[in-house]
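2024-03-11 09:14:02 INFO receiving multi-entity request
2024-03-11 09:14:02 INFO entity count = two
2024-03-11 09:14:03 INFO echoing inputs for audit
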Amino acid sequence: MALGDVLVEERLHPDYPLPDLDDPIMRPFWEGARAGQLVQQRDRVTGAVHWPPKPLYWKGGDRLEWFPASGRGTVFTYVVGREPFLPAFRHLLPHIMVVVQLAEGARIVGHMVRCTPDDMRVGMPVRVVFKRLTDRATLPVWEPDRD
Amino acid sequence: MSSRRRCHGDRDAASWLAFAARTPGPPAPARFGGRPRGVLPRPVVVTDPLADRDLLRRIQDEVAVVGIGHLPFAKDIGRPIGDTAVEAIQLALADAGLEAEDVDGMSMLEMEKTHEVSIARRLGVRQLTWWDKISYGGGAAAGTLVHAAAAIVSGQASVVVCHRARNRGSKTSRPWAQEKELVTDDKALHVPWGLIRPVDVIGMWARRHMHEFGTTREHLGNVAIAARKHAQANPFAMMRGRPLDMPTYLAGRVIGDPLTLYDCCLETDGALALVVTSLARARDLRQKPVLVHAGAQASGPNPVHLANYNNCPTMETTAKWCAERLWARSALKPADMDCAQIYDAFTPLVILGLEDYGFCQRGEGGPFTEGGRIEIGGALPVLTSGGGLSEAYVHGFNLLLEGVRQIRGTSVNQVPGCRATLVTGASGVATSAVVFRGE
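2024-03-11 09:21:47 INFO inference complete, emitting structure
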């Protein structure tokens, strides 16, 4: 199974909390996901990775760039959600939400796919999968990296 | 206990008072024809030998809480918070022996849409000369007092009421159940993945703490059981008459593994208020003054509201930074606290708070809860009214009132001879804390 596999959400709930894809700061992240790439932002000068990302006018502009991340990381921590849960996620219960420590340094929130609560361990390797919610909205989510 | 330090008695105080009030300098002598046209007067720059511009460091014990009041807590209080706020403030003023006409400042913990002027008008305040609102839910309660203290010592107000009115007891009022629009800004970092219930946001910290330090479910249970035990003596506590033991705790229904029902605070309607004034005025009033010894607010670096997972390499909470400022402003230290009201929307926050505020080392918060240490009669009783877990969840404002009662000596779970207590906001969000002491 290739890194960056694509899943399609077949049962998108009308109240799903979709992200604002046109938010100027986050737009490259969402556009990257739609194109099947996990992207991160870094400072051209120092190389420091910024998460949450900064606005492009940060420190006068011309400091930041987005770059493709490896799409690999480890589970920093996780929670297994049970009822009562938001209707938009009920069909996913038990819903495994995760904070992934990316190889590039940032910690980002996601959720697991192709995985049960019993599989979960802090520190386990995970890799990115892309989950299409709508024509435009794609979420980077995570699966156990068994390679 | 450290010796009493009365900063306002040390009179290089004139210099800091001048700074605090930003007193304009005297006009230029007339024989020079006054100041040049078009140039506005500048404030006098007071040279402080310590280069210390932290006013809060220099107002230890200058301001006192002189009145407290709250309505009975309820699942459904049946009227809007604009009304319950006024009722609670009236109770606090009556407790202080003051009238609405004495009030000229207002500081509120507010995330809804009530307005100071409306509350002041309904109350009968003559005029507000200073007001503000602090948001960030569980991080904010002590912040209202920090701001009020600064307003009073800088002369912007003489009697300030701080309050929180909150109607969240009914399920439909919970903001996390109401995401309808496109998710943007901070929420876009976690909500689209379903990480939206506060219990899950905090569960992330709990799991990591368990992994790094070996914290156990029993440690979390010690917190829930202490709060529940304390609530049994409190006639206002929502959980009075419903004691909790460890087997029941451990069998709790899982909400977001590793957290269960008993790790979660209540959802309560409530309205609470405090009245704050200068110590000089407080001495003429009815109640024993409860001194605001020190206070602080901090967001921590790189903050995100709630899902704050990138503020430092070791995933410490915002309270770490708040505690640094708080203790730097305080002549007292954690060991001087006779009890503590550590913010408890969820049990792990108490364990984190005990570490953040220096009662134990990082990672020791779990074992700290053992052996009854945090229960009444222990070395550091916490949440002596039952807290958000078992008295009422009102974004921690009830913890402030309990801190005041402990210093007055009127708590239902009174720590004998309580001289000083810490009240904190939420570890994790932009937060605040305050130290109370007696005169």
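2024-03-11 09:21:48 INFO post-check: The mean pLDDT of chain A is 95.
2024-03-11 09:21:48 INFO post-check: Residues 6-144 of chain A form one domain.
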